[in-house]
Specification:
This protein is an alpha+beta fold. It has helices spanning 3-25, 29-33, 51-62, 231-234, 284-293, 311-318, and strands at residues 72-83, 90-105, 111-122, 132-135, 140-143, 147-149, 154-156, 182-185, 190-202, 218-230, 245-252, 266-276.
């Protein structure tokens, strides 16, 4: 190995460590420093090979496992890009996520994770939340549709959760496997968790009914999560909710409202996500939109409801097909 190669590698390692530290510290340093610290006597070491430990740790990262009257806030932000054959990836807009989550313990030791989530889209230049957008891929001005998923629930148990069935569209039924998650030690006190899902199932927006919105007969969707938290928080039995930060990526068909007329290509989301302690930590215009349009999303659901649908299936239920181009 040359001296220059080693220097570049050392710099990359240092930069990665600094990046994780900044991600964990950003916006929540004071909140995290005030959380209960485990004594040597009360500390419970991590047990990555124990399905029940994995179950409880995963639930603690979502919300409070000791009191269903409490719920947690989530926040995410990043960039939405277009991927087209034989072209470089093109940034289209920014996105922002607002969510509320609640954990409800069950008699068998499992947990119901109850979630409401919103996604808003921002103009790349002005950073304003958009209701209309000039699609640079088609030259058409379109109406922006917020993502409003209520509910998006699942059960956290000592066995790996099946993939979402999206109202029966996804028929995949994997075998029952003990829950052993992909944890990693990034340093003495930083632990990461990888959680990915890859799906390919019949689209709720079939081309015959939704010619302008449909991606085709099938939906191919991937969700890629990377969570980061403090080891001392995971090992602290007095901490019933473990704050986490991380990265989130989604590979998904064109947004239906982009009116891409089944053009080849797809969308990618790439951004950061984090726990939030209070509404004061959200952008002012985000809160204004939530309060004006989606006030029920200010609190997490209290009861289990079905079905849990993604934004694609919900769009098919709540929107109407756009007129065909020949009818415009």
């Amino acid at each position: 190995m040359s001296k220059g190669t080693k220097s570049r590698r050392d710099a990359l390692k240092t930069g990665a460590a600094v990046g994780v530290g900044l991600m964990l510290g950003s916006g929540q340093a004071s909140a995290m420093s005030s959380m209960p610290k485990p004594s040597t006597k009360n500390r419970i070491p991590v047990r990555f090979d124990d399905p029940k430990w994995n179950r409880d740790a995963r639930a603690r990262m979502e919300a409070y496992i000791d009191d269903p009257s409490k719920f947690s806030y989530g926040f995410g932000e990043g960039v939405v890009s277009a991927v087209l054959d034989n072209q470089k990836v093109r940034e289209l807009m920014r996105f922002e996520i607002f969510s509320t989550k609640r954990i409800v313990p069950q008699p068998d030791g499992s947990y119901q994770r109850l979630l409401r989530e919103l996604v808003f889209y921002r103009d790349l230049e002005t950073n304003e939340i958009m209701d209309e957008w000039n699609n640079p891929l088609t030259g058409e001005r379109v109406r922006v549709v917020d993502v409003a998923n209520d509910p998006f629930n699942y059960v956290i148990s000592e066995f790996r959760a099946p993939p979402p069935d999206y109202g029966g569209l996804n028929k995949e039924k994997p075998a029952k496997i003990p829950l052993l998650l992909n944890w990693r030690h990034l340093s003495d006190d930083i632990i990461s968790l990888e959680a990915d899902i890859h799906l390919h199932y019949p689209s709720a927006l079939q081309p015959e009914e939704w010619p302008r919105e449909s991606p085709g007969s099938m939906s191919r969707v991937s969700e890629l999560f990377r969570f980061f938290c403090r080891r001392e928080d995971l090992e602290n039995p007095d901490l019933k909710h473990v704050p986490s930060h991380g990265c989130w990526s989604r590979i998904t068909p064109w947004f239906p409202w982009m009116l891409m007329d089944q053009a080849p290509g797809h969308i990618t989301y790439m951004g950061t996500m984090s726990s939030r302690q209070s509404l004061d930590q959200y952008p002012k215009d985000t809160l204004e939109r939530v309060k004006a349009r989606y006030p029920e999303y200010l609190e997490a659901p209290t009861t289990w409801e079905e079905p849990s649908l993604s934004s694609l299936e919900r769009y098919a239920l709540e929107q109407k097909p756009a007129p065909r181009k020949k009818d415009l």
